[in-house]
Amino acid sequence: MRPTVSILMPVRQWRPTTTAAINSLLAQTLTSFELLLIGQEDVVELAERLPQDSRIRTLARRQPGIVGALNTGLAEAHGDYIARMDDDDIAYPQRLATQLAHLQGASGTQLCGSRIRFIDADGGTETIGHGNTAYAHWLNALSDDAQIRAACHIECPLPHPTLMAHRDVWQRIGPYREIDGPEDYDLILRAILLGIRLGKPEPILLDWREHSGRLTYRDQRYRREAFAHCRARAACDPRSGLRLSDNRAVWLCGTGRNARDWHDALTQQGVTISGFVDLHRHGPERSKRGKPVISYEQLPQQRQDALVIGAVAGPAARTALLDYFGKHHWRSGREYILGS
């Protein structure tokens, strides 16, 4: 019988966390699924380590890397729905059932993520730092489509190992792309540009393991500049509604590295940067990247029809910007966007 859900889990090398991840899926309250473990050429050895369960299938990736593994899984999946999972994370028992109900419910969600909790290499939470705690709080606060879209230029708003959607939605988005950038963020931004509705159900459904071996820390495709170029490409797409493809100029709020990354990535896309906006504008001739730096008092008069990008870091700075934009009756996705 066709399973309800196919779960794609690339396995680069067997680790103790791999066993824990697999066991968390075998304990799901929704039992109609297949678990696709996608290895390299070591699938025979991989199979020898697995528990005896007919729902587990081993596949050798057709192309190298994480993108090759995931696209192999997408091509081989039999389920009506397809979900993601990493081999170092822990799915809560109700994860698949809760996400399936959310996708089939009244929310209209087509691509579903979930709320997460960070755990460390040993499965605890005591060593999780302030940065990851704040990041988890930010991710978990984004639950409906409007919130997720408004935040999509800050960071990837859906944790990759929590994704789940009907196979027709995956086919509409298309396969993962081999780019100089994060493949998961690229996938989510493409889904947003296609008008696919995103969301998360209420509970935390996955423990996301934080450790130094994650690809995020080892692969150049996940460097800051690569994220900036992903954002810039999406912002410049005509489907974004931001009109940057129509020669609309940009003002950048902030002068730190976030703003500089936006400047460089947008300039590479051919966008005109009018200048930067800063709280502390010292001196009449101050400039950044050869562009003028103006004050927030000057921005309304000088903006004209330009898009304003809030390229600041931290929730307090973003809240202050939102208050400023609201005071001038500027609309998200029209007059401004928030970016990281």
Which features does this protein show?
single chain, 340 residues, alpha/beta, Spore Coat Polysaccharide Biosynthesis Protein SpsA, Chain A, Rossmann fold, 2 domains, seven-stranded mixed sheet, 16 strands, elongated
Major sheet summary line: 7 strands, mixed
CATH architecture of the largest domain: Alpha-Beta Complex
The low-confidence runs, each spanning 5 or more residues with pLDDT under 50, are none
Share of helical residues = 25-40%
Within CATH, the superfamily of the largest domain carries the name: Spore Coat Polysaccharide Biosynthesis Protein SpsA, Chain A
Q: Give the beta-strand count.
A: 16
Radius of gyration (CA) equals 21 Å
Distance between the termini: 46 Å
What number is the mean pLDDT? 94
Count of DSSP-assigned helices: 13
Total domain count? 2
CATH topology of the largest domain: Spore Coat Polysaccharide Biosynthesis Protein SpsA, Chain A
Q: What percent strand?
A: 15-25%
Q: Class by helix and strand content?
A: alpha/beta
Shape: elongated
CATH class descriptor of the largest domain: Alpha Beta
